[in-house]
Amino acid sequence: MRVRIINGLLIGCLAITGRALETTRLTQGSDHLTPIQREIERQRQRLSSAEIEERRDALMRLASLERPEASRVATAGLRDPVPIVRATAVHAVLSLPQAEGAAVLIPLLQDKLEFVRRETAYALGKTRSRSAVEALSNLLLFDKEASVRAAAAIALGQIGDDAAVNALSQVLNGTAPPKGKKKKLRENEFVMRAAAHSLGQIRSRSSVTVLIATLENETNANDVRREAATALGLIGDASAIPSLRAALGAADPYLSEAAREALRRLRLARN
Known about the structure:
The structure is a single chain. By secondary structure, the chain is mostly helical. It has three domains: 38-95, Alpha Horseshoe (Leucine-rich Repeat Variant); 97-178 and 187-202, Leucine-rich Repeat Variant; 207-270, Leucine-rich Repeat Variant, CATH 1.25.10. Helices cover 70% and strands 0% of the residues. The protein has helices spanning 2-31, 35-46, 52-65, 68-74, 83-89, 98-105, 114-127, 133-142, 146-159, 165-173, 185-202, 208-216, 222-235, 241-247, 253-270. The protein is elongated, with a radius of gyration of 27 Å.
């Protein structure tokens, strides 16, 4: 009986010692982490929470660190089953290098939820990665939702690659594929404005013809024509001068002012 008691005590002591050693090892391991690494690890653990808002908060905290290693941890949120968490995650991975960030984001352009696709497009624009141009161009031309197409247009302008000019021009000249149902006029105007604005950001002379046609087409909304005038001023091609001069007499004072500012830019560029 006494031997059994002694053996039991020994086993208990060994178990306690083992747990103590393990605790010490973990503590020492944590002590070797920098404050940033400890914060990243805390947020990594919170990403496993059952609470949606806690996972979102963890992603936002990782984003605020503005570190590639924090963004790599945040990529787990891109696979979250809850759409709002995925939409939060796309903005938390933006500290990754351009190509790496684009690679993890592009698959979410196929998400079933409109707002997830839209937020992903905006995030891709912020990566400035040329590797996203093809996927964003397809989104611009083929997505059924105007808000998503507009986000794609804006993102293409932020990236600023000439490869996007064709898709953006199709939006303005009416040759973009039909979307299966008639869209609200205001929705189409929003997408066209975004496309014209982005062509101005890209500043490719190959877009001058379509921008002139957009400016001259009086059936276009004044907002769209203003963006076309502004874009022509940014590109600085002299072939736009006659159309811009004609727009000075537009009934819309804001369009007239946009044309005047574009002509001023052209004069400065020529001098």
